[in-house]
Amino acid sequence: MQDEYALVEGCRRQDRIVQRQLYERFAGKLFVLCKRYIKDPDEAEDVLQDAFVKIYRNIDSFRFECPLEAWLKRITINTALKQLRKEKPWDNTADVQDLAPILPQADESLPTLNYKYLLQLIQELPPGCRTVFNLYAIEGYNHPEIAEMLDIAEGTSKSQYSRARMLLQQKLQSDGHPAHGHPL
Amino acid sequence: MDELDKNVPDDFWRKAFDEAAETPPARVWDTIEHRLDESNAPKIIPLWGLGPASSRPILWGTGLAAALALLIVGWWVMKTPTANPSIAQIQPSNSTENVAMAPATPEKLSATKSADQSADVATSLSKSSKLVKRPATTSASRMTIQVPSVSGTNDVGVAQIMASSNHKPNPLRTQPTAVATFHNPSMPTVTDGFTSAVNRLAVNSLTTDQIAVSGDMQARQNEAQVIEQLTGKPLRMRSQGPIQRIVWFQPAEELAIEPELTKETRKKREMWASVSAMPNAFNPMVSVHSPPSALKTVASNANQGSVNSRASFSMAYQAGAGVQLNEHWSVESGVGYLVGHSTVEAPTQSASYGLIAGANTDRSATVSNLYVDALRSSSKALSDAAPANYDVLSTNNAYLSQSSNYTSQGQQMLTNDYQYMQIPVQLGYQLRPRKRLSLAVLGGLLTNIFVRNTVGSDVVVTAKDGVYRPVSLAATMGARFRYRPPGRWSASLAGMYQPSLGLGTQTESQVQSQPTSTGMSFGVDYHF
């Protein structure tokens, strides 16, 4: 915490060395986050750049009310969503709310797969499904929140998520992983 | 609620990506840095286009003056003989190698650690602006070069380089801040052997033959100068122990030494400069504590009125600087200028009251009244400079003893325009640190340097007249709001109360003044 405090204070002073330290510390995780939302690597880099510039310019508004990493992630997610909003990829799916009961829940006893493989799976999802899946399954937002963030109906959010799970399940099966052995 | 709305955490996916990290390409940081530099670039205010500076003669004059100054500086630089460069100076500026690269030549130098480690440490010493690869987990490293102090031959130089750190290549680009300091070979205690060894070291370190040769020639010239300087001086023998040269350097930007760096950056205190203007009510709190000696008969008169002063709209201007000592405390100082307007109401002599009333004189005109008479009698200079009617009305004891009398019926209003130079020293305590809208409580001392007081339209009291103290102290206290949006500028609004500590006049002066000022300050700050 003390370390984060020093980082934030240094960034507030616009100390370039400390800004670099913040970047070195969090850029790797945030880059993977960007890649989860944006398939194109160049575009993901652009989003990462935009996010860090926003972070440095708005560091004064960070009040230590949450962990620094969570704050950085939120800004990065918002930056990625801003990029995605230009295309609005989540608007083209019908409401499939009734699919919900048939979806299985996660099982923590499952073996961990390489994140690169999982990242590839996520990146292959259609943009709308990918965005909702990221927000719901990994970031932990619920559907009303996602609906507000993306300016869509809750039902649309649910349908996109259901579709994402279905597609991921199919992909896992086709890659030789047992369909019921994974949290989909 | 729908099952999907609950959002049971999907630990499988979360855990998979929790620690997932992938180093982005270096160009990402380069672009970020570039964009930050663009946004931080200072705005140039074209002063030449504003105000009186915009006039053509001034533009031409300043241009000529600048050109002349450049010529003089250029001439001076050309004329000044260039000093002999040290070994550190003769290394090529565009090279990524330097003296510390010496371990690469094993016939001259032997490294105690492995060659690649030495090379890494040596590379870290580079002052080049180019990108270098450097150890990722290196703390402050120490390099010791041992060279025999006396050597019979010029071709033997043994350097032992010890690097006490772990060295792993790190692809990250860093800003080298290493500092290499070497002993000047022209030091009198350095013998021929050492000089040669150092020269050899320098020669070995250079990357191009041309620079190496020029460095060697320069070093030989240094040798000649050393010998020349030593001519005629007694020879002092030294023991043949090794001379240790310790080269310190500290990688400036590595994650492994982050705690040290953050400690260092924490020490870097925030500073700011500010300018402010404070509209205020300035009341000199004037009183006459004893009547002029010539008017003692009047003093005992029961009809004598009293002297009152009232505050008027005044202005204080201040330029200053401050430094944030820690999260809450700050100290600031500066220089200010106070123009304090006030009105003094003083009883006139009955004779002059008659004159004033009869002639319907302007109320601001200075005639004989208790306040002015007290000022004049407190200062010989003022008394000498008094107008002719003052002699008639105030110094003619015979006249005064018979007819002079200060009466409250004839109160005269006199404007007082005080001018002070001010030097405040204030401590501030931040109640809302690190907020965009901060609030600080201020308190400190204000040194008032009296400049002048213009009473009415024709009495000017300066510090030399002996009425006012040239320097007096006042307390200053208040609270300040400061709004600081992202960036370097902020605006502040402060309410200040500044009562004087003690009298603003000399103790022997018959006029006593204890000024008090209350106002609201508006300022603009620039944070460094």
TrEMBL record, chain A:
* Molecular function per GO: DNA binding; sigma factor activity
KW Chaperone (keyword) present: no
Family per similarity comment = Belongs to the sigma-70 factor family. ECF subfamily.
Ranges of residues in domain RNA polymerase sigma factor 70 region 4 type:
117-167
Which NCBIfam families does UniProt cross-reference here? sigma70-ECF (TIGR02937)
Q: Which Gene Ontology biological process is one annotated for this entry?
A: DNA-templated transcription initiation
| Domain RNA polymerase sigma-70 region, chain residue ranges per copy | 22-88
- What keywords tag this UniProt record? DNA-binding, Sigma factor, Transcription, Transcription regulation
Q: Which PROSITE patterns match?
A: SIGMA70_ECF
What name does this protein carry? RNA polymerase sigma factor
Q: What is the lineage of its organism?
A: Bacteria, Pseudomonadati, Bacteroidota, Cytophagia, Cytophagales
UniProt source species: Spirosoma validum
Q: Which InterPro entries match?
A: RNA_pol_sigma-70-like (IPR039425), RNA_pol_sigma-70_dom (IPR014284), RNA_pol_sigma70_ECF_CS (IPR000838), RNA_pol_sigma70_r2 (IPR007627), RNA_pol_sigma70_r4_t2 (IPR013249), RNA_pol_sigma_r2 (IPR013325), RNA_pol_sigma_r3/r4-like (IPR013324), WH-like_DNA-bd_sf (IPR036388)
Automatic annotation (TrEMBL), chain B:
Transmembrane segment boundaries: 58-78
- What's the protein here called? Outer membrane beta-barrel protein
Region annotation Disordered: where it falls in the sequence: 107-126, 508-528
Q: Which UniProt keywords apply?
A: Membrane, Transmembrane, Transmembrane helix
Query: Which spans does this entry mark as compositional bias, Polar residues?
Result: 111-126, 508-520
Q: Which organism is it from?
A: Spirosoma validum
Is Transmembrane helix a UniProt keyword of this protein? yes
Q: Can you tell which superkingdom this protein's organism belongs to?
A: Bacteria
